Every structure is written in C-alpha cells, then in structure tokens.
Amino acid sequence: MNQRAMLTELVDRLGKDLWSRALAAIGLGAVLWLFVDARLALTWWLLIAVNEAFELWTAKGIRRGGGATDHYETVFLINLVLGSSVWAAAAWIFWTSGGVAGLVLGLAIVLGSLYHVSCNCIAHGRSLIAAGIPLLAVFAAMPVQMLLDPRYEGSVAIQAAIGFVFLSAYMISALMESLRR
After folding, report:
1. For residue 1, what pLDDT is reported?
2. Among the four 18, 27, 122, 146, which has the fewest Cβ within 10 Å?
C-alpha cells in the first residue's frame, strides 16, 4: 500500500474512532473540572473540539485526493502534534498535581494515548512520529520531574524511574516488532 492509501486508511479509521475519543475527552474534562479547575477544563475541552474539527476538515481533503492532498496531509500532521500535545498537557497536569491519584491518572492518560497512537498510526510513519513525540516527551519527563520534586523520597523516585526504564524498553520492543511486520 502506498503512503497516500495508508494516510486515507488512517483518516478513515480515526473518523470511525471519533465517538470513543469524544467520550474519553468528556470524561477527562469532567475530572479536570471536578478536581483541578473548571476554567482549565473548559479550555481543555475547547482545544480538543478545535483539534477534532480540524481533523475532520483535513480528513475530508485527504479523502478527496488531487493536488491539494499534500497540503491537507501537512495540516493533518500539525493537527496530530497539537492534539497529542493537548492530551499530554492533561497528563502532565495530573502527574504534577500531587498524590497517588494524580500520578496514576497522568500515567494512564499518557500510556493510553501512546497506545492509541501506536495502534492507529503504525502504518503511516509520519503520523506515528507527529502524534507520538508530544506524548513521549511527557512520558520521558515524568520520572525526571519525580526525581526533582521534593515531595517524593529519593528511593520512591528512583524506583519509579527504574520502572519507567523497564516500561520504556518493553514499549520500544513492541513498537519495533510492530514496525517490522
């Protein structure tokens, strides 16, 4: 399958997945609203809505084909970066909020988002990179933040950092195997 066909298949798959992403965004925004800040939740929801609207617009242009497809693909890739950044920001907000619940929720958001990206974008490398980089940046920053944060004992932060190394090795191995296939 050529790159254009893979991109069209990706936008079709993401289009079918819109409702599950919307449900996840509603749920996460509600948690932000209830436990962090209502204005932050509204801003986050707005950013998600704009991101999804741009995705629908670019997907229509990609499906239409023709000479403008490269333009739509570029906008689509930028939109993937921005969308992943919005989800990564939510993960970071929870991660740095303090407490076990924030750590678990932050890690769940970033890992769930990475899983979603790897499952959906594996066949289109540029999309995989565009959507994955913001999430990987937050994932890599999480143990560093924990090591630097005085709220955590040194041994707890070190254990968490070691856990991140093992998890990263497993995730990289699985991704490499998926790319090989």
Report:
1. 66
2. 27
